[in-house]
Every structure is written in structure tokens, then in C-alpha cells.
Design a protein that fits this description.
Structural class: alpha+beta
Distance between the termini: 55 Å
Helix content: 25-40%
């Protein structure tokens, strides 16, 4: 018996239980996904295999259904929050000492357990941070406009975005 329970065999391959309850083979991935592909075909992009009865160790094909990530999150939302704190998240911070750091925006001291030096005391100060700007020329009306550096924005307004999108649809893109 392994650290997290009994291993199982499927298609001549041994699958070992993980801490989170799923079975895995280091060469083939997760058992429930492998079984779906063997029994029902490829998993479409953007879809996930869900255990209908929420038992990760019940790997009967009739217990599987394909869902979108959003549907999957709605199905397991409460469990995931509890699970993360119970299994993984709590152990990351547990036992780490608090220390006092000064916010680079407001200058207030705050307590943190973070292992890297945080710069801000919270979202408000983080959002007040100036971000680098880039000058662009609108692809529709040729007007100059400023945008946060690193974004893919090519138009200066919603109207120009709409005109550009309509033109792209006409080209079959």
C-alpha cells in the first residue's frame, strides 16, 4: 500500500493515488482523463472530465461527464476553497513568522508572512502605482492615443474597436 492508499490497474498500467485523491501514472497522466479518452475518444479543447458523484476514486466511465471549467468550478467551488486551505494552502503559511514592512505608496507599516518583499499594503495602494504608458496610432482613424505598455490594444475607442472588428469579420479572419 502506498503513502495515499492502494494503487489500481487499468489497461495493463498501474495508477497511484495522489494526495488530492486522483489516481495518476507519471507517463500517462490522470486516470479519469486517460479512461475517458480510451472509452469515449479525445477530450475537446476547453473541456474537463468531471466525476458525477464527486468521488475522485470512483473511476467508472459512467461516472464521468464533460463540463466546461466554469461549470466544473460551480460544481466544486465550496469544496475547492476548503480543500486548498485544508490540504495545501495552510501548510504554506503555517509556522512562518510575521514581519513588518513599509508600503512604498502610503508609507504605512503592515504585517505579512510573504517570503518575498511585498511593496504594497493592499489593492488600493497597488492600484495607485503609476504604470508605464505607450503611445500608439489607431488603426482605424489614425488618432494618437496612450495605452498601458504591454497591452495589445490597436484602437483608440470602443467605436473604432467596433469598426475594426466589423472590417476583420468581412475579411473572414
Amino acid at each position: 500500500m502506498g503513502k495515499h492508499g492502494e494503487s489500481v490497474e487499468y489497461a495493463g498500467v498501474k495508477w497511484h493515488p495522489r494526495q488530492d485523491g486522483y489516481y495518476q501514472n507519471k507517463h500517462r497522466g490522470l486516470l479519469h482523463r486517460f479512461m475517458w479518452e480510451q472509452e469515449r475518444g479525445p477530450i475537446p479543447d476547453g473541456m474537463q472530465v468531471h466525476h458525477v458523484n464527486h468521488d475522485k476514486r470512483d473511476n467508472r466511465v459512467e461516472n464521468f461527464v464533460l463540463v466546461t471549467p466554469g461549470e466544473h468550478w460551480q460544481e466544486h467551488g465550496d469544496e475547492r476553497g476548503v480543500d486548498w486551505h485544508r490540504v495545501g494552502g495552510a501548510t504554506v503559511w503555517q509556522g512562518k513568522p510575521y514581519r513588518t514592512v513599509r508600503c512604498t505608496i502610503c508609507g504605512e507599516n503592515f504585517r505579512t508572512r510573504a517570503t518575498v518583499d511585498p511593496k504594497f499594503c493592499g489593492k488600493t495602494c497597488r492600484n495607485r502605482t503609476p504604470r508605464p504608458q505607450s503611445e500608439r496610432v489607431c488603426v482605424v482613424c489614425s488618432a494618437r492615443f496612450s495605452v498601458r505598455a504591454g497591452t495589445a490594444t490597436r484602437t483608440c475607442s470602443r467605436k473604432c474597436t467596433s469598426v475594426h472588428a466589423y472590417a476583420q469579420r468581412g475579411k473572414g479572419l
